């Protein structure tokens, strides 16, 4: 995935291999996307990609609370040094892998379905991150190529946010500012973008 957002969201440098890092991958052929990989440093620096060979991943910054929650769950799971799969004969829902790179590691554990509460909670965190990045990508594409679709893209982001599924929401601000300031978009989209911008800024 060659992210078109690279010029909008820039972090200093790439993720440093020496820093403690969590990596989540999900492979589910036939789904959209069929592959997801999310890397997170304890500092909150993160990367998202939908192709294992992608050399230009989408970069973003989690809040201290968000990254703290991820690393606390990893610690409770002994940094994935133990099996997480429930071993039940159920439908295939994609191969998920948690990987720890840091002190005592690396460790990783793969599963289709886990009954471990902390594993479920950590999985939900990574799924929320993936939903957020997909929303950001959809908004960016609409801003560039489908001006009439911008309002619907922002509406979907609002719904995701209302459902408490949005993560690192500050990353949406550059695109929202762009919509607010341009008369190329319909008034409803600009008003919706302005309201969402103010709400995100107030939450910060």
In brief:
By secondary structure, the chain is of the alpha+beta class.
For this entry, give a set of tags:
disordered N terminus, elongated, 204 residues, single chain, 6-stranded antiparallel beta sheet, alpha+beta, 5 helices, 17% strand
How would you characterize the overall build of this protein?
It contains five helices and six strands. It is an alpha+beta fold and about 200 residues long. A hairpin with a 7-residue loop joins β1 (about 20-25) and β2. The protein has helices at about 65-75, 115-145, 150-160, 175-180, 185-204; strands at about 20-25, 35-40, 45-50, 60, 95-100, 105-110. The protein has a six-stranded antiparallel beta sheet, covered by helices on one side. The chain has one domain (about 20-204).
Biggest sheet layout: 6 strands, antiparallel
* Total beta-strand segments: 6
How much helicity do the residues have? Answer: 25-40%
Widest sheet, order of strands: 4-3-2-1-5-6
State the oligomer. single chain
Q: Which structural category do the helix and sheet elements fall into?
A: alpha+beta
Computed CA radius of gyration, to the nearest angstrom: 18 Å
H-E order: EEEEHEEHHHH
Cα distance, first to last residue? 30 Å
